[in-house]
Amino acid sequence: MEITISHLTKRFGDKTALDDVSLVLDSGVHALLGPNGAGKSTLINILTDSIVRDQGEVLCNDHEITKLGAKYRELLGYMPQQQRLYENYTAEEFLKYMAAVKGIAPATAGKQIAELLQVVNLWEVRRKKVGGFSGGMKQRVLLAQALLGNPRLLILDEPTAGLDPSERINIRNYIAAVAQKMIVLFATHVVSDIECIAKDVILIRDGRICQKGTPVELIESIQGKVGELPCDLDSLEKLQERYCTGNVYQRREGLRVRIVGDELPEGCLPVRDSIDLEDVYMYYINK
Ligand SMILES: Nc1ncnc2c1ncn2[C@@H]1O[C@H](COP(=O)(O)OP(=O)(O)OP(=O)(O)O)[C@@H](O)[C@H]1O
Asked: Which residues form the ABC transporter domain (predicted)?
């Protein structure tokens, strides 16, 4: 399956939330990375056919999704950024309810729910109320509901929001495991969420795609534009005002701040081998 997005534009009054966005999505994890307000949820809302666009096309295997209607929705699994969980339901009851909403026959649903509860490691607690679950367990319930009906296109809007580091890793691993046979669009502003699992990365800022490519291509594209500057806590603030700065590292020699840009300040030690997607993000989102 292939999703082809062409010249998508969406305005809210004077605000252009999406500006002439074009993309092709095929199987594997496509990371949609951008700061708050970049347009990620707007793109997702158009892809889930939840809002009307102003211009552009979204084709699923050459057919416009708005015309496919229910046929398209059958192919879609969606994990929204915020979703009300029915706190008095057990995990199993919630998934049964969601299966009914999706029109999945009870016999098929039962088997699939059992499989999914195991995939997301909630089988043991399936009869416990969702209200008592941790944030990570709730997210796993939501991921399971998105996977009901074997979607071909899985859309995840900040699936790791509010999770602690170990829960983030768990959710990320589940997503990587299920992503092999489907298109996954993973929207986030947290680079580490997608670093090891994304087949390609779409960087979005102010409603426009400012760069896209495989992680390796993107890292290659900023060779020579990343350095580390020795600093101390007093000089750090000034450096952060003047340059595009990233993480601060405690090295044996003292503090070093990562700086990305076309022109690096004097005294900056070039970084070659350890450039990562965090640097890529800083470079293109601030460019
Ligand atoms: N219903 C709406 N009415 C008015 N403006 C909106 C609406 N939805 C989104 N916007 C604006 O469109 C822009 C893009 O918003 P969007 O929610 O798509 O960004 P985002 O990348 O998902 O951000 P976040 O990471 O904070 O969820 C923002 O400036 C936002 O304020």
From this structure: 3-231
pTM, two decimals, is: 0.92
Residue 187 has pLDDT above 90, yes or no: yes
Predicted-assembly ipTM surpassing the 0.90 threshold: yes
216 in Cβ contact with 53 (< 8 Å): no
The answer to whether the beta carbons of residues 8 and 18 sit under 8 Å apart is: yes
Beta-ladder partners of 209: 204
Nearest CA to ligand 1 atom 26: 36
Ligand 1, CB within 6 Å, residue ranges: 12, 15, 17, 34, 36-42, 189
Residue 10 CA to ligand 1 center (angstroms) comes to 10
Q: Tell me which of 9-18, 118-127, 212-221 is least confident.
A: 118-127
- Span 73-117, pLDDT tens digits: 999 999 988 667 788 999 999 999 999 998 899 889 999 999 999
How far CA 263 is from CA of 181, 248, 249, 260, 280, in Å, comes to 42, 19, 21, 8, 15
- Tens digit of each residue's pLDDT (9 = 90 or more) over 54-64: 999 999 999 99
The whole-chain average pLDDT of the chain stands at: 92
- Class of residue 198 by CB neighbours under 10 A (exposed 0-12, middle 13-18, buried 19+): buried
Task: Evaluate whether 194 touches 34 at the Cβ level (below 8 Å).
Answer: no
Q: Which of 51, 132, 35 is nearest to 85 (CA)?
A: 132
pLDDT at position 204? 97
- The residue to mutate among 10, 41, 158, having the most atoms of ligand 1 within 8 angstroms of its beta carbon, is 41
Write the single-letter amino acid at 119. Answer: V
Helical residues (DSSP H) of 90-206, grouped into ranges? 91-101, 106-119, 135-147, 165-178, 191-194
